[in-house]
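Appendix B. Chain record.
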Amino acid sequence: MSPVGGNRGVLLRARALRDQGRAFALALVTDTEGSTYRKPGALALVADDGERFGAISGGCLEPALDQLARDALASGKVALALFDTRGDDDVVFGSGSGCRGRMRVLAWPVAPGRHAFFDAICAAQADGVALELLLAVDAADAGRGLAWRPGVRIDFDPPPAARALGESAPGLHEHDGAHVARLRIAPAPRLLLIGAGPEAPAMLRLANTLGWVADVADHREGLLQPARLGEANALRHGRPAAVLSALAAAPDAALVMTHVASTDLEALRALAAMPVGYVGLLGPPSRRDELMAELTDAERAALQPRLRAPVGLALGGEGPEAIAMTIAAQLQQYFHAGR
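Structure tokens predicted for this chain:
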């Protein structure tokens, strides 16, 4: 199995530690300025035995992250660190990163059992929605604030500054001398592979590494073998239209890659009526044109602004692994275009 990356990987490891009755410190980047390796919303953890999962830098700040986690676990309180590498002295006497940025990190001690802040993050990720945060970042009130997502609001003993700022714009804010960070923890992108052909295993490995949630659907049950698709979040057996209509929520992106023209056409017709922002179609331009000609005018109009066909960036190469890499690169570009 490929290691799961991104915030999704951090939370998977954190839940595993809690299931084992282990304590850990959950670190969150709350606000940044200038050039920084990670941005607001990034997570990392340090377990009670020193195991670290996730990163806040290319390695130069990780020793300080370890110390921050130890402080949080020892005190049982939220710990705060401000890393400022903008000065010339830092290159020689500090972290040596030369990144010329400022990053603030909070670390919550999480013991076995319920933990309101950690549970709020996990619940939002499980539902595939962003968690909006307004957190105090001064030492006296570090970690106190508000969290919300559709239909849910959670208070973490918010100080007056957090209550006064409400749903302000992202960034660092000051109110009556107190500092509050407004940020969001985005959900892991959700990807549906319609087709379990030769590109699917490599595509799943890349999706896991990048921290995405990827499902595979195919009407050919013989292709849906866990031995080759074990890195899928779920395997769905059925025709494209039936699978898509049964989804609780539309994926963020769908790849049409069955290698069967009639099945691809069925998938495109179903996707034309769904709010899927990225629809990728595998195959050459001539095949795309033939399939699009079979759609109604309304279906073509609904699909064309969202369709990537041929799917993937023109990176060169051949074979399933190279194709999967070009698609993953384009998806990465799409998922982060608005951030």
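Further analysis of this model is presented in Appendix C.
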